[in-house]
Amino acid sequence: MTSAAELPGQTGINLTSPDNSTNANMPDPLMTATGVYVTVHGHFYQPPRENPYLDAIERQPGAAPFHDWNERIHHECYRPNAFARVLNDQGELVGIVNNYEFLSFNIGPTLISWLERHDVEVYQRILEADRKSCERLHGHGNAIAQVYNHIIMPLANERDKYTQIRWGKADFRSRFKRDPEGMWLAETAVDYPTLEALIKEGIRFIVLAPSQAQRCRLLPTKENPHPEWHEVGGGQIDPTRPYRCYLKPTLSTASSPLSTVCLSPRDGDREIENSTSQFPIPDHQSLPYIDIFFYDGPISRDMGFSDVLYNSGHLAGRIGSAVRGDHRPAQLISVATDGETFGHHKGGTEKTLAYAFTKEFPHRGWTVTNFAHYLNLNPPTWEVELKPVTAWSCAHGVDRWQDNCGCGGGGEWHQQWRRPLRNALNWLRDRLMEVYEEHGRQFFCDPWQARDEYIEVILDRSPHNIHRFLARHQTHKLTNAEQVDALRLLEMQRHALLMFTSCGWFFEEISRPEGTQILRYAARALELAGDVAGVQLEKEFLKRLAIAPSNVDIFRHGGEVYRQLVATSQITFKQVAAHHAIASLFNNHKGEIRNGTSPNNCTVKYSHPYQKRVYCYNVHELDYHLQRLGALTLAVGHLKLISEITWESEHLVFAVLHLGGWDFHCCIQPFEGRRTYSQIKEKLLASLQKASAANTILVMMQLFGDQAFSLENLFAEERHRLMRLLSQETLSRLDQLYTQTYRDNYGVIMAFHRDELPAPQELQVAAEIALSYRCMNTLRALEQDISEPQSSINHILELKAIASEAKHLRCRLNIPEGKQMLEQLILRSLWQLLHDANGTFDADIQRLEKLIDVAYQLNVGISLDRSQELYFSCLYNKILPQSQTTIANSEDIIKHRQLLKLGQKLAVDVSYWLDQMG
Fold first, then answer.
1. What is the tens place of the pLDDT at every residue in 541-574?
2. Pair 478, 417 in one domain
3. How does strand 367-368 pair with strand 35-44?
4. Over the stretch 399-428, which tens digit does the pLDDT of each residue have?
5. Can you give the residue range of the structural domain that contains 658?
6. CA within 20 to 30 Å of 634's CA: 8, 571, 684, 685, which one?
7. How far is CA 553 from its chain centroid?
C-alpha cells in the first residue's frame, strides 16, 4: 500500500515553489529573498460588546438565530478558517486547512479573549497556527499584535497611547508566548507621535494603506548621500517592498536621536534644512525608525468589494497582475482586509483561501510568507515619509472619529454629534486622570505603571494573581477596603480606555449600538469615580453630551441617548440579588427541587454556605428557606455578593413571592444582623400561612419598603429562560391539542395533498406542530438511550417514519434544538465508534449510518462539519496508519472497508483508498 506520507488529501502541504523543492541549485526562498512572495493579512476584530456591569455579552436579537454577533461571526468566519475545507468536484472533503497557518493576521484582544472562553478548540488552532508558521518561516510567526481596544491612536493622549501598546503587547505575549514584531493600528490611523511610541515599545513594523505615504526615496548611502525624493501622496507608492520611516529631530536638540517632532515630516525637513548652519543633522544611522509595509490598495479593495474571493484562480490572477517585471530579485505582493471578509461578509470564501494557499499560489511558484519573515529576508532599501495624520478609512485624516466629515454618513443624516462626543469624552478622561492620580498615590508606588501592568489582572482575575499584583505595586499593606478602592480605580481607568473604542464614531448616528456601548463604559467609569473619590461628574458630562445632536427625534441629543439607553441599563447589587432570588425558585438547590415538581405544601431549608456565580458576581447563599402553600411560593434568604472584578461585596436579605404564572414580587434590603433577619423570616413565613397573597405582599412592604423587583428586572438571559419554563406547561397542552387535531384530520390532509391542493392552513399548521412535537420527543428519548443498541434503533426508525410523513404532507419541521441534538448525537456516536475499543463495531457503525441518513431525511439543515473534522483527523492519524500494517484476516479487511465507506457517508473523499483495496 501507499505510505501515509504519500497519501493525497493531507492537510500539511509544502508551500515552497515547486521549482525550489525539486532543483537543489535554486536558492530556498524561505532562506534567501528570491522570487515572488505573497502575504494575505486579515485584521480580525470585533468591538467589545460586554455589559460593563456583568462582564458578559447579553443576547443581541439582530444576530438571530445566534446569541450575539460574536457567536454568529464565529460560526461564519473564525471557526471555518480554523477548519477550512478543500473540496473536490463532487463536493467531498479532500483536505482541511488551518488558514491561520498561512494568513498574516492580528486578532483584537477583546475578540481573542472571547474566543478563548467560548471555543477553546478554535483558540488553540489559532495559537498552533502561529507556532507552525514560526517553524516554517524561521522564527517569524504570522500573528502580529494590535493596540488593545481599537482606539484611534493620533487622537489619544500620550499616556493612553503607551497603555494601548503595552496592553496589546502583553495580551499578545500571554497567548503566543513570544514578543510581537509588528502591530496593527486601529483603522491604520497614524501620526509621528504614535510612531515614536511604537518605536520606544520595541515594535519593528506596522502595516498602512498606500494613501498614507507622502514621499519616498532610496536610503542614503556613501555613494549617494542625497537621493531624490519621489512624491507619492496620491497613493502611488510601490507596495511590493518595505520602507524605513525615521523620526525627525527637533530643532532645539537636533543632535539627539531621541527628540522628535510631531509636525508634518516635510515641514520638519524644511526647517532642519534651513537651519543646517546652526544645528548639525544626525546621520540616518542614529535616528530612531520603524519599518512600514503598504498593502496593495486596489487588490485589497477588490477583495472587500468585488467577487474576486469566490474563486482561487481569480484571486491568484488578480494578485499576479501586481507582480512587477523589473527583474528585481524579490518582491512582495501584500493585501489586507477585515478578517471577517473570509466567511462572514463573503460566505464560504475561507475555502478559496485554503485552496489558494495550498494549491494555487505554490503552483505559480509563489512563496506564502508574512511581513516579519519578508522583512528579515529583505530589509528596506527605501525610506518613506508619511502624511501628518491619516487613516485608511477617512479621506480627511482622522476626522471620521471627531468631526462631521461625511465619512460613514447615512444619506441625509449628519455627524455633527461626533465633535461634541469626542470633546465630552476627552473632558471626562482628563477629570478621571486627576481622580486616579490623586487617589492612586495612596495605594500604588507608581499609579501609571500600575495601570500599564493592570493587563496582567485583566488576563487572569484569580484571587492569587490579584493579590500578587497588588503586593507588587502597593505603597503599604492594603486593608480589604483599600484593596477594593485600588481595584475600583484601575477598573475606572480600564473603562476610560474602552470608551474611546473607534466604532463609537464610525457610523452615522450616536444612538447606534456602538455609540451607546462606549457611553456605557463612560457611565461605569463615572460610577467608579464616585464610589472611590466621591466626585460627581455625571451632571457636567450630560451637559456636554447635550451639545451632540442626534438624528433620531426621540433622542434629540447625546444626553437623552445616555438617559434612555445607558442610565437605564446600570446595575446595582440589589438587582443582582433580585436576579438570584427569583431564579432560585426554579433551580436545583442541594438536591431539592424548587421548580414546582415538589408537593404543593413543602419546605426547603438550607443554612450552610452555598455558592454559585451570577455573571461576574459570586453569590454566597448563607441561609435559604422556601415554603410552598397552594399556588403561592415564598423564598427568604441571606446572601453575600462579591464582585470578581473589584472585590466589592454586600450582605443582603431577600424575599421573593411567586403568585403563579408570571407574577413575582421580590424585595431586597441590607443584612442588619442575624436577629433582625430571623424576625423578618418568621413574619414572612407566618404571613404565608394565611394563604393570602395580598397579606404577604403587605408584610413584605412593611419590612422592606416600597421598592420591589419582578420578572422584568431579571437580566435578559435568565428572564428568557424563565419565560420559556413558565410557558412550557401551556405549550405542552397546545402541542397535545394540535396532535389530536392532526390525528383526527389526517385523512383530510392527505386527501388535499393527493389531489395536489393546498391543505387548509389551520390543518397544515396542526400537522407541522404535531410532527415537530413528536420528533422532539423521539430525539430526547434517543439521547437518553443512545448507548442501548435496540432502543436507539427503534427511535431511529421512528424518526425515519416522521421524516417520511413530513415529506408526504409537505411539512417543514421547526426544531432548531433538535438540529443541534442530531449533530451532537452523530458526533458522540462517531467518537465512540472510533475510540471505544470495547464497542460492538458492526452494530455501532450500522446505527451511526442510519442516524446520519435519517438526519438528512428530516430536512432540518443538518451540519456534519464537526463530525467530518473528527473523522478526517482519525483517517490520517489512525485508520490509514493501521492499514499500513499487515491486515491479519478478512474480518480486518471488512472492518477497514466499512470505516472508509463511513467516510463516504460523511462526504469525505476516500475513493483513492477504496480503489486501492479493489
1. 999 999 999 999 999 999 999 999 999 889 999 9
2. yes
3. parallel
4. 999 999 989 876 789 999 999 999 999 999
5. 573-588+610-713
6. 571
7. 33
